[in-house]
Specification:
The chain is an alpha/beta fold and 485 residues long. Helices cover 55% and strands 9% of the residues. The strands form 3 sheets. It has an 8-stranded mixed sheet, sandwiched between helices. Strand 6, helix 5 and strand 7 form a beta-alpha-beta unit. Helix 8 packs across helix 12, helix 8 runs antiparallel to helix 15 and helix 15 crosses helix 19. The chain is globular. The termini are far apart.
């Protein structure tokens, strides 16, 4: 039976925006014993939620913002689940005008963290609280338990904490939610989470490509390989669902579903934001950036078609003369290595962002709350948490003794896979760029010395020396003497 609270009752939490994500989140709150106020600009969606799912808990539906706000207990707490951008700003303004001092507006969408910083200041000036909360897990997570990354004032967390914990995923008795830091910290961390997700998905795709076209395996056979991998070190949500996708037949033709899907990957912006922020912060998130470029290139369908019609020369394409089982194992190990690099680079960016904006984000918290609910949940997140428990100031995640030991066993297969891909003419941008990043970290000398010499030649940008302190310049157009600046 549908349970709709009387208007004299008050809700502990409200949800604005009842598309699939918002609707599922509202249902999650209700299922876990919370009275939930619900509002959508189109009243039909509110009515549909109550009609179809009203028996899952107690809801208070409203058809105006004023009624919605009036149905919330104080301090009022309302989560916005609407389209990012102007729509979010419009709803924030409506709520802020109708709310009172101390009430809390939560943006649960994928907002750009700089927008969240701006919004937090604007809402705070009106005496209200604003929380940017990253929510990961997709539609299923919203309904059954997401990973939640709220930022905003610590005072807001004291009020929001218990109710968010009631709906979050739970691993080993620990809810997958914690206060990330002030203003835009929550949305920044969710943005980088999505960047890691981009790299993870791309390198899984590259592994599939190598198995399919390197040793001629069919999708159903590769699905079984991924199922086996998911029982070991690669145990993760994305590996799990990859096996499901590869095993799926097209209901209409009976062909492998992956063969009838157009090979042009979409994106909603969070991966691109991660790459841009990495550039702005000066953090080399090469694997993440290459995964964004790979999606962009896949979608450049007209350019790709022209290149194929023009038959760009391939050079000599070698046949892969290897033992199939050995190659599959090499790809598994290379995939593990590249995934570690993606996480390591993501944590580097979070550390840099935290320092830049004064957020004091604790990487151990992220490794904890990402173990359940979210898209990048993986077995080795426990190892990541241990790494930061042992040394909170790790220069890089892959410098942790455990991960260094893992990479010692992964590096040779990783190199063999990148070489094989090159010989086969198969693109592996994340495998290759991640390996170059790894080799750049371990290199005693990089060609940056030559680049500094070039910069000094054409722009008098100066350089530093290895043998003494100071800044120097060569008089390139004169007698080429050395000048200390």
């Amino acid at each position: 039976m549908t349970q709709t609270a009387e208007k004299t009752d008050l809700a502990q939490i409200g949800v604005v925006g009842l598309a699939v994500m918002g609707s599922n989140l509202a249902r999650n709150f209700a299922r876990n014993g919370n009275t939930v106020a619900v509002y959508n600009r189109s009243p039909e969606k509110t009515r549909a939620l109550i009609s179809e799912h009203g028996d899952e808990g107690t809801f208070i539906p409203s058809e105006t913002v004023e009624d919605f706000v009036a149905s919330l207990e104080r301090p009022r707490k309302a989560i916005i689940m609407v389209q990012a951008g102007a729509a979010t700003d419009a709803v924030i303004n409506q709520l802020a005008e109708a709310m009172d001092e101390g009430d809390i507006i939560i943006d649960g969408g994928n907002a750009l963290f700089t927008d969240t910083i701006r919004r937090e200041k604007e809402v705070a000036a009106q005496g209200r609280h604003f929380v940017g909360a990253g929510i990961s897990g997709g539609e299923e997570g919203a309904l059954n338990g997401p990973s939640i990354m709220p930022g905003g004032p610590a005072e807001s967390w004291e009020t929001l904490g218990p109710i968010l914990e009631s709906i979050a995923a739970n691993v080993d008795g620990t809810p997958c939610v914690t206060h990330i830091g002030p203003d835009g910290a929550g949305h920044f961390v969710k943005m980088v989470h999505n960047g890691i997700e981009y790299a993870d998905m791309q390198v899984i795709g590259e592994a599939y490509q190598l198995l399919r076209y390197g040793v001629g395996m069919e999708p159903a056979e590769i699905a079984e390989v991924f199922r086996e991998w998911n029982a070991g070190d690669l145990d993760s949500y994305l590996i799990e669902i990859t096996a499901e996708v590869l095993a799926q037949k097209d209901p209409e033709t009976g062909a492998p579903l992956v063969d009838v899907i157009v090979d042009a990957a979409g994106q909603k912006g969070t991966g691109r934001w991660t790459a841009i922020s990495g550039l702005e912060l000066g953090v080399p998130i090469t694997g993440i950036a290459e995964s964004v470029f790979a999606r962009a290139l896949s979608s450049a369908t007209a350019q790709r078609a022209a290149a194929q019609e023009g038959q760009l020369p391939s050079g000599t394409i070698a046949e892969l003369n290897v033992d199939k089982a050995e190659f599959v194992e090499d790809v598994r190990r290379a995939l593990y290595a590249a995934k570690l690099i993606a996480y390591s680079q993501g944590f580097d960016e979070i550390k840099a962002g935290s320092e830049e904006f004064g957020w004091n984000v604790d990487p151990r918290d992220l490794a904890t709350i990402w173990r359940g609910g979210c898209i990048i949940r993986a077995k080795f997140l426990d190892r990541i948490r241990e790494a930061y428990d042992n040394n909170a100031d790790l220069p890089a995640l892959i410098l942790d003794p455990y991960f260094k030991g893992e990479l010692e066993n992964l590096i040779d297969p990783w190199r063999r896979v990148v070489v094989a891909a090159t010989q086969l003419g198969l693109p592996v941008p994340v495998f290759a760029s991640s390996l170059s990043y790894y080799d750049s970290l371990r290199a005693e000398r990089l060609p940056a010395a030559l680049i500094q010499g070039q910069r000094d030649f054409f722009g008098a940008h100066t350089f530093k020396r290895v043998d003494r302190e100071g800044t120097f310049h060569i008089e390139w157009s004169g007698d080429r003497s050395l000048t200390e600046m």
